[in-house]
Here is the input.
Amino acid sequence: MTGKKPVPFTFSRLIASVRRKDPPITAVVHPCDPESVRGAVEATRRKLIRAVLVGPQAKIRRAAEEAAVSIRGLEIVATEHSEAAAVAAVAMAREGRADCLMKGSLHTDELMSAVVAESGGLRTARRVSHAFVLDVPAYPRPLIITDAAINIYPDLEEKRDIVQNAIDLAHALGIVRPRVAILSAVETVTPKIRSTLDAAALCKMADRGQITGGILDGPLAFDIAISEAARRTKHVHSAVAGRPDILLVPDLEAGNMLAKQLQYLAGAKSAGIVLGARVPIALTSRSDLAESRLASCAIASLMRVHGLRKKA
Here is the structure.
């Protein structure tokens, strides 16, 4: 007798599973365009978060009018401009008045400058990194790609933190032992390609307990990493290849292109999250659709709960 076929991962199922009686207070930074304020209102309505709108009050109200949504009942923390909104939201998180942050219509650099500031930021001992969580129609599980937005050319030590952050994210999503495929152009270690050396070192670091909670393998080319058929054809023996949960990319350029190729050519939906800071940060894009914004909020909420459980 065979077991039930696993239910494929979708953002709609993720969002439906996260509704909370006491959603995390989330400082939404500079929600001054219709999409960002609509996302904050809808995420609050669905009990994914409890939004506090941080930014110029007149612009926020005008954006709400353009979006045809009501912000009645939502707290507004008034600031003069986007940079001040980022600083104020980060201060709220430091002081325990916000459990999560969510990017609005300001530039990512503005928000992250406040987050990683030496004085008054949200740094921890861990390197801050970004992860895309993708809902890919042709793939049965969530696919995490990291880092595709913050660390441009990470070195080995930075990649160690990026991997550990992604593993913690996978745990929050309910993946007990996530498989991490460390991507390169080839499957063999060669000094001519630095990413293959980093991959080999990361796997040994996992063997020595410097990375915990996941199964690592690499270097792996994308086809072998993602396709069981390609793995068999090329006779690669791996506990990760063909069924990864996490794809660690060599650098930001590769990660950003890979994530966007999956979105625009394979119909994937994406959610963005910043990891390694004192609080989770939902990092949405101006081009994100409503479901992607809600999924980012849902993931930030799950990360918040996961962080509290680790501290308990």
